[in-house]
Amino acid sequence: MAKAKKLSLLERGRIVELHKRGLSQRAIAAEVGCSKTVILNFLTDPEHYGTKKSNGRPKKITPALSRRIRLTVRQDTGRSSTQMKALTGADCSAITIRRHLREKGFKNKKQIQRPRLLQRHKTARLDFAREHQTWDTEGGKKFYSLMRKNCFLSHSPFLLCIVALLKTSLRSKCAKVI
């Protein structure tokens, strides 16, 4: 249902005048041409009539809870939103906490499991591979088993590429010997 127009200044003045004369709200409503509820709302607080704004649904995250959540994030960035909810005692969902943090400018980043390789690490590994590329079959087997034993291959596409190159070069050398 649509809202009716607010009372004009002329209508407001007329309502006040009629009320001072002692007319009932029903009689004033009939005289002005609006509902008695409008008359009641206006006469209850004439100075603030029409100024109330509806804010919609109340927020689940109060300013105090917002500060607690942000403090929790600053203390340990590795916590999940569910853990933050439990620590702060928030009465909202974990998704609401994530949305709130996003609105406050926090980025949603996954925690890095291990430090990233720097360029010097990559060049050192490549130099090592190049140095040992000319090994014979026995040396290559020892190198490959050493790499597997020390988890040298784990989760590094760069190293997997080097190992693949080493394997192909070892196979080609073995084929030449045979």
TrEMBL record:
Show where the Transposase IS30-like HTH domain sits.
Answer: 3-41
Q: List GO molecular-function terms, semicolon-separated.
A: DNA binding
Q: Which InterPro entries match?
A: Homeodomain-like_sf, IS30-like_HTH, Transposase_Tc1-like
Q: Residues in domain Transposase Tc1-like?
A: 67-133
Name the SUPFAM superfamilies on file.
Homeodomain-like
Q: What would be one Pfam family of this protein?
A: HTH_38
Question: A Gene Ontology biological process annotation?
Answer: DNA transposition
What is the name of this protein?
Transposase IS30-like HTH domain-containing protein
